[in-house]
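Thread: quick sanity check before group meeting

JM: Hey all, I'm pulling together slides for Thursday and realized we never actually wrote out the predicted structure for the chain we discussed last week. Dropping the sequence here so it's in one place. If anyone has concerns about the input, flag it before I start.
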Amino acid sequence: MRRSLPLKILETCLSARFSRLGSWLLCLFAGGLIYAPALGGDLIWDDYYLVRENPFFRSPVFGWEVFRHYLFFDSFSTYYRPIQNWSYMLDYWLWRGDPAGYHLTNLLLHDGSGVLLFELLRQLLPGLLGSAARMGPRANNPTAGMLALIWTVHPVHNAAVAYISGRADSLASLFALLAWLLIRRAAQARSTLAAATLGGGSALAMLLALCSKEIALLWLAIFAWHTLLFETAWPWRVKVRAVCGALAVLAAYAALHALPESRTPLAGGPPAPLDERVLLAFRALGDYTRLLAWPGQLYMERTLAQPGIYRSVAAWRENAGYELLSLGGLLAGAAACGLCCWRGPGRPLRVFGALWFLTAFLPISNLFPLNAEVAEHWIYLASIGALLLVAGVVVAFPPRAQLTLGAVALLAAGALGWRTSVRAGDWVNAETFCARTIQDGGATPRILTTLASVYGERRDFVSQETILRKLTAHFPDYAPARINLGICLAQQGRTAEAEPLLRVGKGDADDAARRFPRTWRAALHLAQLHQRAQRRDDALTVLAEARALFPTTWELVKYESELRGASAGPAAALPPVAEFAAAHWWHLDAWITLGRLRSLAGQPDEAIAAWRAASRLDIYDAAPLAGIARIEFDRDRPAAALPEQLSALTREPDQPRHYLMLGTILEKLGRQNEALAAVRKAQSLAAEARDGS
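JM (edit): ok, ran it. Output follows.
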């Protein structure tokens, strides 16, 4: 039968005439286009810590130190992701803290993962398709390209791309995919040296993946499944070497993971009965299946449990959606099992896709303890398995039907890309993100607290108080809402109402600290209230008790130092700061503060030593070098002050004060023309700043 012209055109579009480079460019272009709205986004949620307050990314001197700490320093979490901090180091060096640069890195990591996924699939598909590839071997490129494209543009990955702190998923995937591709090249190498080099590169990439996010452990498991059950081209000795190499990498990762000080993660209550966990697992499967098939409502935290659902018939009807999720999960699981048992064409691909999904889904299924019930970015890896399962069904159709389904897939990719672009726009700032999340039904305590904080930052205390009072009424055990309400009232001068909310007993404070991050803010603001009421001793007592509970929290130490210094001078303010700095060599503000206090206390050499240490902790912070220059100038040593001031100027070339100080030093050295030029530059920058404002 002769094919029509439209069918010929469609076959051409879906054939291997699209080169590998074309597939790469398509993934890169599509990803860049749909996530463009997120490039101008501000810092949101954990971004404020990881790329602003985090002490471990502002200098290369932390290259090894990050392996000795968990990702969140002031938290109970045990996330071990030093390579994520490495990525922030690179971003800080390139972008000087500009969020647009961080968002661009996230985009490139995700698009790069899409390109590498295409490369991996085009190599794996021949062995998985076998005789099912009715369009011939050349069908591998368009099939792999279509799968990689849909995965790249799928909206469910928004939290891993548009959210700066979510990059761990794409970072781990990038290195894991690279490791898999390298080990395949090693297996094909003709020389021992080439095989060893490629194998070593693969091991290193896999170790980097593991140190990017714990999900890379699942990449290892999936690699092992494929190698042992589906890789027909490798002899068993090669398979055994590959699996042994994976185990060696796992051992190296375990050794690195043991470097941080022991931290006991949050101990929840007793595990739910098995039947409840199984029910939650089916609900999670139903929710993830719905998100993959119809990503309409997207938000970070999703809840599946509803304790009162069986309280009455009316309650059951009101919450029937949860039962529909359970039914959907049951049907999805049954359908996957049926497709794997079906002996039609493409069965190996379907089985492998189902195993891939199952391996990635079980840890997030709620069968095991989790800090949430469903999170969109958790499906980042499992979604590949789901796509492979669907592809295994498509290849069972006749060639003409495959072409039609290919056209449908292209249209679906366009629709998914449009939805992704809309969702990416939600991340433009914290208020928009929270408002649209709440609009879609994601009004969780953390989202509401974040929105309240936005109102607080712009001093809209009425709106902030309204949200926080509702939160404390509905979630009385949610400590952050109570603490933030106390801070909100304190900032309005309503001390009598604020103090009871900020005053937390030792047992309650310890429990809150174990369950929620940054609860030390209650003690800090309570101490500030005492100080305003001229109760300095009470403020110091609160700080002493809080420091015993939060010994690594610099803000408590700094405020105690300020209180002591205000009443007894710099010498009294020095001990707590000096003690903290000595115990935390990596803390920038501690060393800057120590240098300032030593300078005020008349200890210039000690101040210079402190500021010299601080100057190594941030490649762009000019304050320590400017401080050294000031001390040297005040000691009538302008020749020694000049190189320090020039270094400060290099770090902050747009600050008029550095040029003014440079002019003063040059004038002291008798270099009048250069001094005048420096002053003029300062005046020019100041004028530009005024015009810009």
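AS: nice. Residues 12-17, 133-138 have pLDDT under 50 and may be disordered. The beta strands are 301-302, 374-375.
JM: adding both to the slides.
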